[in-house]
Write a structure and sequence with these properties.
2 copies of one chain form a homodimer. Chain A has 134 residues and is α+β, with helices and mostly antiparallel strands. In chain A, 25% of the residues lie in helices and 41% in strands. Chain A contains 4 helices and 8 strands, in the order βαβββαβαββαβ. An 8-stranded mixed sheet of chain A has the order 2-3-4-1-5-8-7-6. The first copy, chain A, is globular and about 45 Å long. The two termini of chain A are 22 Å apart. The A-B interface holds A 1-2, 4-6, 9, 11-15, 18-19, 22-23, 26-30, 49-53, 57, 74-78, 81, 83, 91, 94-95, 98, 100, 120, 122-126 and B 1-2, 4-6, 9, 11-15, 18-19, 22-23, 26-30, 49-51, 53, 57, 74-78, 81, 83, 91, 94-95, 98, 100, 120, 122-126.
Chain lengths: 134, 134
């Protein structure tokens, strides 16, 4: 076993109510909290519990954010994978030393957590968020 | 808590060795078993442990399979999400009754497990596999 575990899997949706009808009401996942507006990122988000981890539903609220452009280009679907690691700085240093492309060279942080994104070109096509509780 | 949990997250790759260099050697996930060839599906697969679940790396070995066409069209990245449920038949019946589109109306099965795929048009863009141990 490693110290790496799933934190969340983010899905971009174009219709939050329809997505909740599927994942929560029909499939039976439990919603954690309410739909939350994040104006700074121009998205509405909702979390569904999946064991200790979550599925995060993301709906853009404008047309010009990164996630809105992703939705326009690729359609709804899985957007990024977030894994929790024990030592974020060491992981980022290791990946950078091996030549992988970090979107955030320095972790971003808020609310007792720190995170950094790894570019899909380094992971085999997956936008990967590494996350650490602090 | 519901009885639904992550079984695996499948990632389509175009270079298995490069993908393993990232996810196993650099990020530090443990590989479960060896790279396995599945001629019937024209893919090579490898599993990485993620808690009780797995990340499944899939590389097409021909150009004309469904997954090869997906790779050619969309590039490498997250391909499908597999959730384990306690009663597959009841879930499928429920989803079908609500008008969602099942790719497999009747579960497929082998090796002590049964599974069925739900069409991305029903889930908000995610190819979803529902899985049951038997």
């Amino acid at each position: 076993m490693t110290d790496i575990k799933l934190n969340h899997l983010a899905i971009v949706v174009d219709d939050m109510e329809a997505a909740l009808r599927f994942w929560r009401e029909s499939l039976g996942l439990q919603q954690a909290g309410e739909i939350e507006s994040v104006p700074a990122e121009a998205v509405d988000i909702a979390f569904l519990s999946l064991g200790d981890a979550h599925i995060e539903l993301i709906q853009p609220t404008t047309d010009d954010s990164g996630v809105a452009k992703y939705l326009a280009k690729r359609g709804p679907g899985m957007h990024h994978l977030c894994l929790e690691v024990a030592n974020l700085d060491a992981k980022l240093e290791e990946l950078s030393a091996r030549g992988y492309e970090l979107i955030n060279e320095t972790p971003r942080g808020r609310d007792g957590r720190r995170y950094a994104f790894i570019h899909p070109s380094s992971t085999g096509g997956v936008l990967l968020e590494l996350y650490e509780k602090i």
